Amino acid sequence: MMTRQQAEKRGLTPRMAHSRLGGRRLRAEIMGFGPSPATRRLMDRLNIDVQSIDLIELNEAFAAQALAVMNDLRLDPARVNVNGGAIALGHPVGASGAILPVKLMYEMARSGARTGLVTMCIGGGQGISMLFEREGA
């Protein structure tokens, strides 16, 4: 990731833009559920409905965690982790912040999706959500 100015300076074409970020903190005992209130906060800030997002990359710390977040946000499973998540594909602990935006970028380009959401749980009850928009869409 880099700024538009850095991309242009290096002769690179931006593929997607990071729009906004939302974060929330819950009690540590509720580890894994943070993406839900983080996403709600982000959607409220942007005055949009999560149902209007084309694709979602949801970090899967474990199956019950991912399902709880999907259920709470009423996410359409057909738009979540469309090429498989961490449970199916695997990746190192701590790599979600790098892997999920890249997976989203390639799938947005492949499918023609305009908007995408990356959401992750973070140790200690935290959660984060980031909205991306495909350049040229």
Automatic annotation (TrEMBL):
Which enzyme class?
A: transferase
Q: Which UniProt keywords apply?
A: Acyltransferase, Transferase
Q: What is this protein called?
A: 3-ketoacyl-CoA thiolase
Q: Which organism is it from?
A: Klebsiella pneumoniae
The Thiolase C-terminal domain, residue ranges? 28-134
Q: Which residues form the signal peptide?
A: none
Look up the EC number in the record and give it: 2.3.1.9
Superkingdom assignment = Bacteria
Could you state one GO biological process linked to this protein? phenylacetate catabolic process
Output the Gene Ontology terms for molecular function. acetyl-CoA C-acetyltransferase activity
